[in-house]
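Researcher: Let's do a round of design. I'm pasting the structure tokens now; please hold your answer until I've finished.
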């Protein structure tokens, strides 16, 4: 039986990078969960406020990179009374092993939640060995 958990506010983790960015604004590391099945890894990232047109998912040199930009004009004229998180862009990268089938990685963004599916290559999937 699952134990009850208290809800707690988490502060956004601001990305501290030595690289300079060409897009103004703060960058944050999106919170994420990774699930594994026999066939794939599933990465779920929270990116509130990011729309599909402002999301880039790229793969280069075995590094999967996710960049989500916020449209700051949505927040013009708003003077919040209380905030629990700052508004900013998101960026995160993952180094992939050679066990991931990089040709078939897929991504879906719905309501600020990005789901990446990283299928395992055939050699990384478990198999049954017949007994002769």
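Researcher: That's everything. Go ahead.
Model: Designed sequence:
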């Amino acid at each position: 039986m699952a134990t009850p958990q208290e809800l707690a506010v988490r502060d956004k983790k601001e990305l501290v990078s030595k690289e300079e960015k060409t897009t103004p604004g703060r960058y944050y590391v999106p919170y994420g969960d990774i699930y594994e099945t026999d066939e794939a890894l599933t990465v779920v990232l929270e990116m509130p406020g990011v729309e599909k047109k402002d999301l880039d998912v790229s793969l280069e040199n075995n590094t999967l990179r996710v960049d989500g930009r916020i449209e700051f004009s949505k927040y013009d004229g708003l003077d919040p009374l209380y905030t629990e998180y700052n508004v900013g862009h998101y960026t995160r990268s993952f180094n992939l092993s050679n066990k991931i089938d990089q040709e078939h990685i897929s991504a879906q963004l719905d309501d600020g939640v990005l789901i990446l599916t990283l299928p395992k290559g055939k050699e990384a999937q478990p198999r049954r060995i017949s007994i002769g």
